[in-house]
Specification:
There is one protein chain. This protein has one domain. Strands 1-3-2 form a 3-stranded antiparallel beta sheet. The longest helix is centred in the C-terminal third of the chain and has 26 residues. By secondary structure, it is mainly alpha-helical. Helix 2 crosses helix 6. The chain is built from 7 helices and 3 strands; from the N terminus they run H-H-H-E-H-H-E-E-H-H.
Length: about 170
């Protein structure tokens, strides 16, 4: 994928980003995304792709040059944590981040760094995510969303099971 333009990457670069984003709506979109399983990056709508990559970007170290093995290790952790909803590996994810402008790579593929403030066409998204995460990191925020989703699902299941039992008031 690196070196060629995937239609979703081209659309991301072409799509203007609003100067400010509704952080409540953004949090809702991210919440719906992170509680899923097996999400393919190439199949996501442009806005959700940008959101998924931005979420991963927030977990990259700031102002630090990383070697390829170091960035791979960070991305593997992301895929076990906040990006566990994605059906990809660390190599493909790294390429998506580079192609979309969230991660800079030197010409030799030896050095990587998180783009400060995010790519120019998604600065508002990067700033809005900082508000959504409000003093926590993406791993903690995503874990809380998954836990709340699981609890709500369990409560629905229990209500459904109680409705099917004779003599039990719903």
């Amino acid at each position: 994928m690196h070196g060629c333009s995937h239609p979703a990457i081209t659309a991301m670069h072409a799509a203007p980003t609003a100067p400010s984003l509704d952080t409540t709506a953004l949090a809702g979109r991210l919440r719906r995304l992170v509680v899923k399983n097996g999400v393919g990056l190439g199949l996501l709508p442009t806005d959700d792709l940008a959101l998924a990559l931005a979420c991963v970007w927030t977990g990259l170290p700031e102002s630090r040059v990383m070697t390829e093995p170091e960035v791979n290790a960070v991305l593997k952790l992301q895929l076990q944590g906040p990006a566990a909803c994605l059906a990809t590996d660390h190599v493909e994810l790294r390429r998506w981040l580079v192609d979309a402008g969230w991660l800079q790579r030197d010409g030799y593929g030896r050095e990587y760094r998180r783009v400060p403030g995010g790519p120019a066409h998604h600065r508002a998204l990067a700033q809005a995510l900082a508000v959504v995460f409000a003093g926590t990191d993406s791993s903690t925020w995503v874990a809380a969303q998954r836990q709340a989703h699981a609890a709500a699902r369990d409560a629905r299941r229990q209500r459904w099971q109680q409705q099917g039992q004779p003599g039990v008031a719903a």
